[in-house]
Amino acid sequence: MAAPHAWRAARVTPLGELNAPPRMTAVALRLAVQVVLVWSLWRGLYAQTGTTAGLSRDQAVTYAVLAVLASRLRELDQYAGRDTVLQHMHFGTIVYWYLRPLPPQRYYALRAAGEQLYGLAWALTGYVICLAAGVVEPPRSAAVAGVFVLSMLLGQWVLYYVMLVLDQLCFWTVRNTAAMLILLFAQNLLSGVYAPLWFFPDWFLTMSAFLPFQATLSVPLSLYVGRIPLSDAVFQLSVQAAWVVVLALFTRLLWRRAARRVISQGG
């Protein structure tokens, strides 16, 4: 793959989706059902109360719906194209990542960028529809909107490295499908995808504060709904940026060590 055309790697997974209209229809239906269900669930939970865990009903509903939409940023069917690290390790084809003119770490980054841009189109479309329908609240001010966008960008950057670490673990394990599912569940739980972290016990919040997961989604959405005030935004953004640096260095080290484990016969 020549360097001027390396950007084509970003189209791998999105093209697989765009060339399969039934799959896109299924994604749209699933996303619509998820939004309706979480909207109904959180409105029902707040039917007999005003504020819980520092969140009002509208804040909780907005958080939950935005979490569903944000999940589309990296929720693409990579298995259909057989281009996941897990599949390459299973079939012994990971060696081809190291035989291309394009370094594997750059190919991985370009592909992830394409997936996130494609997912962003879904998320933005869903957000505009939900905002017009009154399902979610708009940002309380232009400052909140700006901080949210910056925090979301940093959060997706952290998420990229978290997912990269999970994929890199495949170089050191043989049968890792179950482990990957457990790790993905933990990532979704600790990042606040299933429920805002503010509803969990204090010990859980303390533990998650030392992990990068809440920086991926919980922090941006908490800034959006006002659970984290603007006065704390600088600190939260700094923590997110610090995780980006730490994980970037860590994954760079893992790439070097992973290359030593690849042999010419395959994975």
UniProtKB/TrEMBL annotation:
It comes from the Bacteria. Coiled coil: none annotated. InterPro entries: ABC-2_transporter-like. It comes from Streptomyces swartbergensis. Keywords: Membrane, Transmembrane, Transmembrane helix. The chain crosses the membrane at residues 117-136, 142-166, 178-200, 233-255. This is ABC transporter permease.
